[in-house]
Write a structure and sequence with these properties.
There is one protein chain. This protein is 31% helix and 37% strand. It has 146 residues and is α+β, with helices and mostly antiparallel strands. The protein has a single domain, classed as Alpha-Beta Complex (Aldehyde Oxidoreductase, domain 3), CATH 3.90.1170. Strands 1, 2, 3, 4, 5, 6, 7 and 8 form an eight-stranded mixed β-sheet that branches. Helix 2 packs antiparallel against helix 3.
Length: 146
C-alpha cells in the first residue's frame, strides 16, 4: 500500500507572514478557545570558537512525513485538539530565522500546553531531519541535537 502523507516541509526559513496568516485563518473557527505555538529558531551557537551562521536542513522526506503523520495521529488520540499544523524547513536557514513551526488548537487551554510539548519532543526524538551547521568561515559539521 503506497500512502502519501502531508508534506510538512517548506524550502528555507518559515516567514513571520506565513505564521501570521496561519493564525488568522483560525479566527473563523469559533469552537477553538486556545492556541499554542512553538517556533524553533536557528541559534548562532559557538562551537570550538566558530560561530554558526546557518543550518542546512535535509531529510529523508517520505520517511519524515510518515513520522510527522504518526506523531500527529498519536497527539490527536492523546489530547483533545481541534487542529494541529507542523512545518519544518529544508535547505539553508540563517541564524535568527525560524526553522520549525508547530501550531496546536483546542477548545481548552490546558490541552494545548501539554500537547505542544508532546509534539515538539516527539519530533526531536523520532523524525529523520538532519542539520548541518554552516559556520561564518564557511566550514561545516553535522549538528548534534541537544
Amino acid at each position: 500500500m503506497n500512502t502519501t502523507y502531508k508534506n510538512v516541509f517548506k524550502q528555507g526559513a518559515i516567514s513571520s507572514e506565513f505564521i501570521g496568516e496561519s493564525i488568522a485563518k483560525h479566527q473563523s473557527k469559533t469552537t477553538i478557545g486556545a492556541h499554542n505555538i512553538f517556533l524553533g529558531q536557528v541559534r548562532a551557537d559557538v562551537v570550538e570558537d566558530k560561530k554558526v551562521a546557518a543550518i542546512e536542513y535535509t531529510a529523508y522526506e517520505d520517511m519524515a512525513n510518515k513520522q510527522f503523520h504518526e506523531i500527529r495521529e498519536a497527539t490527536f488520540k492523546k489530547f483533545n485538539l481541534s487542529c494541529m499544523h507542523i512545518y519544518h524547513s529544508l535547505g539553508e536557514v540563517k541564524s535568527g530565522e525560524i526553522c520549525l513551526f508547530v501550531f496546536v488548537s483546542s477548545p481548552r487551554r490546558k490541552e494545548v500546553f501539554k500537547a505542544l510539548e508532546y509534539v515538539v519532543e516527539a519530533i526531536k526524538a523520532d523524525v529523520p531531519v538532519f542539520g548541518k551547521e554552516i559556520f561564518e568561515d564557511a566550514s561545516s559539521q553535522w549538528k548534534v541535537n541537544s
